[in-house]
Amino acid sequence: MEVDVLVLSVALPLCGALIAVAWPRRCEVVGMLTAFAVSVAAVLTLVQVLVVGALQHEMGGWTPGLGIALRVDILSAVFLVLVGLVVLASSVYATGYFGQPREKAHFWPMWLLLLAALNALVLSSDLFNVYVTLELLGLTAVSLAALSGQRAAIDAALRYLLVGLLGSMVYLAGVALLYLGYGTLDLPAIATQIESEPIAWLALCLMTGGLLLKTALFPLHFWLPPAHANAPAPVSAVLSALVVKAGFYLVMRLWIDLFPALLTPSTGLLLGIPGAAAVLWGSWQAFKAERLKLLAAYSTVAQLGYLFLGLALLFQLAPGPTRDVLFGGIVLMALTHGFAKAGLFLAAGMVQKRSGNDQISNLGGMAQRMPVTTFTIALAGVALIGLPPSGAFLGKWQLLSSALGLGQWLWVIVVATGSMLAAAYVFRVLERAFAGSSQPDAPVAIAREEWPALLLSAIAAVLLGVGSGWLWPLLGNDI
Amino acid sequence: MIDTGVLYGLTGVALAAMGFRATLLEPEVIRKLLAINIMGVGIFLLMIATAYTGPDTAADPVLHALVLTGIVVAVSATALGLALERRRRDKDGS
């Protein structure tokens, strides 16, 4: 029974996508049902993992080596739930966002394929299978980003495609080298054999480099803001919350599970220094952004920086409780950002739809016209700044205490400056939203479009902070 | 005399490196797409070269299967890239 749930996470959205292509009139219903079923499957998987521990499924009965294994542990199960819930909420929102039957028929099949690719990526424990899911994810993400058909969106999507292809080709070169060196593609099998030798180093550099390009770690972030800011709102939400996070997830997996034999404490600085630069640069650009969606996109660049900064600290800690706690903190920050950023992009989409653009200077009076959306932006802002009780507060706290414990106060300055800038860009938006409007308007509330965003932001700002007590100790057992 | 397998492998690496360089430096989208394909072919050639285990033994089937999958992925990615570029040119034309 438990393996069925594992396969469902990939098989359901794949079947849903095919049905949505074949039956365009009903694609919205098919899409919603699939998104709901996938979320249930993700929650069931998490429950299974909590009860019995890590699970493995050998597809078609072929053992790893020749066959491809799906594996789930607590980390992948938590990401599955993040993917499931964010996609479900964005799907509900999308039913209101896309009005024309033509738009719907273009949106839903790609959307479900993207979901299948994300889940397959999280569950794969085969390096080549990861390459295939990366490409599937890239192609569907590009198609969705170009959906509006406007010139700016197509330009951004094309650049996104080229960058993504380059990234996955470089990653593939690394996979080829690993196969050359160790004769297998199964992640656990390579992990037991790997040694610090040139071919492993070269593979580590190539695979990490390719993934960092896809994760948009500073200075490889140049493609992200235009692609995320010009996509339709539900797509932006998923791109920013989940798709870049998939690259981060893989880097984390590779560095922690596959390459520990190669890493010295200082190797992590290769990720940490660009991470710190991303925090400062991304936050500053977000502060200067003229458009709400561009602000959200640059904030993603900054938030990814914190995660890599956290990894740099993690590799300097000896295995033990302190390291486990920091690991939990990093995962919690990744989850919080996922929910908060999705909520923020959906809210930005509401603003754009209602007032025709998302210029921050035009937000005056929004607090009166769209109270629920304003509240959503405020809650997402709490999580992005890292104020209590958000999950990011606990995560950043761990970053700070680890940095202080190691005596490396420069990281503390970076985190503090980044948080200050985050507070500045969030309050800049809220200040405009609460400013008076020349034409007072009746308040509107559209439940179907506003509630999903509100719930996502609330999960990030409240639930992940208050409820992290039971999740955190479990994550530590993983490494 | 240099081993044939190594020669093919090194050719693959050289092609991949040339493709990588051109992807970064060529300004035209179509040229970039071609360059990425050349890079892919280089990597595939490297993989096929590693699959060769000698004149009398069967080659490693796993790598051949991977390269086939890789080619399928590369074709679809190129098609999407060309479709987007065409749409962009149509927009400019009108």
Provide a descriptive summary of the structure in words:
The complex is a heterodimer of chains A (479) and B (94). Chain A is 77% helix and 2% strand. By secondary structure, chain A is mainly α. Chain A folds into 3 domains: 1-123; 126-263; 266-479, no CATH class. Chain A has a two-stranded antiparallel ribbon. The longest helix of chain A is centred in the last third of the chain and has 35 residues, at 321-355. Chain B has 94 residues and is an all-alpha fold. Chain B has one domain: Helix Hairpins, CATH 1.10.287. In chain B, 83% of the residues lie in helices and 0% in strands. Chain B is built from 3 helices and no strands. Chain B starts with a helix and ends with a helix.
Span from first to last CA of chain B? Answer: 59 Å
What kind of assembly state do the chains in view correspond to? heterodimer
Strand content of chain B: under 5%
Main beta-sheet strand count, sense and barrel state of chain B: none
| Weakly predicted, low-confidence segments of chain B | none
Number of helices of chain A: 19
Q: What would you report as the Rg of chain B, rounded to the nearest angstrom?
A: 17 Å
How many DSSP-defined strands of chain B? 0
How are helices and strands ordered from N to C of chain B? HHH
Shape of chain A: globular
Question: What is the SS-derived class of chain B?
Answer: mainly alpha
Cα-atom Rg of chain A, whole angstroms?
A: 21 Å
Please bin the fraction of helical residues of chain B. Answer: over 70%
- Arithmetic mean pLDDT of chain A: 91
Largest interface: A-B, 28 and 30 residues
Arrangement of strands in the largest sheet of chain A: 1-2
Total strands of chain A: the figure is 2
CATH-defined fold name of chain B: Helix Hairpins
What is the CATH class of chain B?
Mainly Alpha
Q: H/E order of the elements of chain A?
A: HHEEHHHHHHHHHHHHHHHHH
